[in-house]
Request: fold
Amino acid sequence: MNQHNFRTYLLIAISLVTLYGCASNKDPLTDLLQDDDIGQLIANDDISIDTAQNNTYQTSQFKRHHGRPLHGRYIKTHWSKLPGWSKQSVHQLVPVLRQNCAGLMRRFPKNTHVASRANPAAWANFCQKLQQQKHINNPITFLEENLQPWYIPTRNKTTGYYIPVVAGDKKRHGAYQWPLFATPRSRSKQRATRGYIESHPQQFNPLVWLDDPIEAFFLQIQGSGFIRLPNQRLILLAYNSHNGQPYRSLGRYLIRQGWIHPTKASMQGIKAWAKRQSPNKVRKAMSVNKRMPFFKIKHQSFVTGAYGIALTGQRSVAVDPRYIPLGTPIYMNSQGVHNIQRTLFAHDTGGAIKGAGRIDYFWGIGHTAGQKAGVTNQRNQVWILWPKDAGRPSTQ
Reply:
C-alpha cells in the first residue's frame, strides 16, 4: 500500500472508530498505533484525532453578551509585521478553525467551571461567516479579511509537549513496577508526598504499572498518555488532580548536583542519564519533585485539552488564559531548534505555563512528537488574532 493510500485509510479508520468506538468493547486506537511508523504519522500532524463532532452551531445566542478585559497589553498592528505570515503552512488550518468555532459557540451549563475563554459574542459574526463558507480556497486571505492581529509586547518562550505511548499493565508483575495512581479518596492521602506514595503503593490506588521509571515520570509531567497493555490494547490516562505539593524541576536538580551538563538537560538527555544509573539513584533523583499527579482513565480515542475539544498536533497550544483566553487563535514566530511560524489555537493550559507570551506547543502523539517536544525551548513573539468588528481582545 503506497503512502497516500495508507494515510487515506487512516483518516477513514479514525473517523469510524471515533464515531463508534464508545459502543464497542475494543479499544479504537489499538489498530492505529501498532508500530512507530503510524505513531510518527500522527506526531507529524499528517492526521488529526478529533471528536468527529458536528461543527454546526447557533451564533445568535451570544450577541447580547459583553466580555471582560484581559490582563495584558495588546498593540494593534498590521499583517505585514508578522514574520512569515503569508508563507506559513495552511495544512489542517481550516478544519481546526471550524472545530475551534464550534468550541467557542458551545453553551456550558451554569455550574461548569471552564478556564477563562474567549468571549463568544466577539466571535459570533466571524463563526457565522465561516459556517456559511463551505469551501475556503485561501485561508490566509480569509483570516486577513476578518481578523485583526494584536501584538503581545512580551518576548517569552516556547516549550513543547506531546502525548506519550508507553508500555504498561493493570497488574504489578515482572518489569511492570512503576505505578500511576488515581486520585485517593482520603484527603490526607491526597496531600502525601511523592516519596511516601511510591514507597507505599498498596495504600493508594494504582491504575496501571509501567516498565520504565523515567517514562512514568515524564508521562506525569506531560499530563496524559496512552498505555499499551501486553495484549496491545491501548487505554488513555488523563490528568485528574495532584497532591498539592510543590513542583521541583528534575533537570535543574541534576544540573545542580553536577550529574548532567546544562546543555543535556532536555527530556532526551535526562532519559539517557537515567539509563546509565542504578534504579535507586534514579528513584532518589525523581523524589526531589514532591508533586505527584493523579490520573483517570478516559474512554475515548482522542486527547482533549483544558478547553474540552480535541488537541491537534502543531495547531494546538497551551497558554496562560489570563492573557490569551481559551479558544483564541494566535500567530507565533519562534526561532531556535525548530522554526515555527504558524497560526495556532489556545486549546490547553498548564501549571508551568505562566505569562503573557508563554506558549507550550503541542507536537502530537508518539515517539517522534516526543523527540521534538523534548528539545523545544526557545524565544517567541506572539500575536492574538481577533475579529475586526469586536474591538480589543476580551474574555467571557
In short: The first strand starts at residue 68 and ends at 69.
